[in-house]
Specification:
- The chain is α+β, with helices and mostly antiparallel strands.
- It folds into two domains: 4-141, 60s Ribosomal Protein L30, Chain: A (2-Layer Sandwich); 156-194, no CATH class.
- Helix content is 37%, strand content 17%.
- It is built from seven helices and nine strands, in the order ααβαβββαααβββββα.
- The strands form three sheets. A five-stranded mixed beta sheet has the order 2-1-3-4-5. A two-stranded antiparallel sheet has the order 6-7.
- Helix 2 runs parallel beside helix 3 and helix 4 (101-109) packs antiparallel against helix 5.
- The N and C termini lie far apart (56 Å).
Length: 195
Amino acid sequence: MLTQNQINGVIAFHRHHCPGLTFGMRVGDWVLNEFGHAADEEIVAVAETDMCSVDAIQYLVGCTFGKGNLVFLDYGKNAYSFFRRNDGKSCRLVTRGGLLQDLREQQEKLSANDSAGREQIRQQMIDRILRADFEEIFLICPVQVPIPETARIHTSKRCDYCGELVMATRLLNDPVLTGGKNLCIPCRTNHRGEI
């Protein structure tokens, strides 16, 4: 169970308390108990969402984008995979859904001007997430992705279209698609017809 200091720290890091952050607190607490804390890169998190919960995971577990042990997959799923490098332990946590359905329906019936009613329901959601059994909120499944590689530093090259430096592994250089030019992701996406 998280201490009040940990909860306060997560809220201060994220700058507000909301149901999404509370989901992340529950994930972070579970991971701390099952995997421990990432002092460096020994624990890796793969988040399939970019919602508020990821801030709680960063704060509590110690997985960050900068260290390369927090990976974002833009799948739009409230799902998280965790790996411990030293022994290969891994799991995937997926939100079951349904826990807050009645409260969401109540919230949808409120007028946009009913800020007090919305705040009351938001607090009820937070309380319900905090009190629920972990297995009521999340399925614990085998992972579906391989363990990400450790963070690496790659050389940078200039994009031949915009002139900005880009990690070499993110450039496309294809005789047919780019005419042999090195193109960054935005340039090959946004300027396809001009190359």
